[in-house]
Amino acid sequence: MNRARQFTEREYQREIEPTFRKIFQCTASFGEMFTSNMVARAILFPVFPQLTLLEFQALSYAARAGGDPCAYLSLLDRIDDMNYVQHWQVSLESGEEYSNLKTANSVLENALYSPDGKWGIRLTLQRFAVVGGSLAFIETLFNQLSSSVEMHTLSFLAAYKVDPNYFGGDIGWLDGFLSELYGHEKSQALLSVAGLLS
Question: Alpha-carbon torsion 103, 108, 112, 115, what sign?
Fold first, then answer.
């Protein structure tokens, strides 16, 4: 059985955190998530805190097309212990190492991201993920999922319309959230299509 390389919080801070900070601006689910390095962004919905094998394979294909043979995985809800393992390096060649981490990343918010800071995906407990990277990375990912950015976003908005409290925000929050991902004009267009603008 293949095992992912483990990192304690101390090792993460020394070896990996600078890469994390190239991609992610904060660890909050609903704040400004990405740095300006992530020029293309999208919502994946529905997605659980652990990707399915098909989702992992799609992500892996897009990442390997950009030259990454592996990815980092970091828990975002961390235990306050510098010696506790909360970060891993997983191979993108197969989903075995990733799926073997099921107990850790299936119940806590986590992020998978490029060791070179080229892309990242944040998986939330609210059944959605946000992904950032180059336009080519995003296009390849959604092609591999046989889907589209718009389809995933409209599915997310339909779920929001049914239960906005589940996602923890009002329509003003939602517009800001979508604007960060897609820009204000596209955010307004998506909200209109979803019937969320009055």
Answer: negative
Q: Looking at the structure, do residues 128 and 154 belong to the same domain, yes or no?
A: no
pLDDT tens, 3-33?
788 998 889 999 999 999 999 987 666 667 8
Q: Is the Cβ–Cβ distance between 194 and 162 less than 8 Å?
A: no
Question: CA torsion sign, 97 to 53 to 164 to 131?
Answer: positive
CB 70 within 8 Å of CB 115 = yes
DSSP 3-state assignment of 174? helix
User: Residue 147 has what pLDDT?
Assistant: 96
Model pTM above 0.85: yes
Domain shared by 141 and 157, yes or no: no
Domain match, 14 and 91 both: yes
Are 94 and 110 within one domain? yes
* Residue 163 domain boundaries: 148-198
Antiparallel, parallel or unpaired: β 120-123 and 40-44: unpaired
Least confident of 12-21, 49-58, 74-83: 74-83
Is the Cβ–Cβ distance between 43 and 181 less than 8 Å?
Answer: yes
pLDDT tens-place string over residues 153-174: 999 999 999 888 877 767 778 8
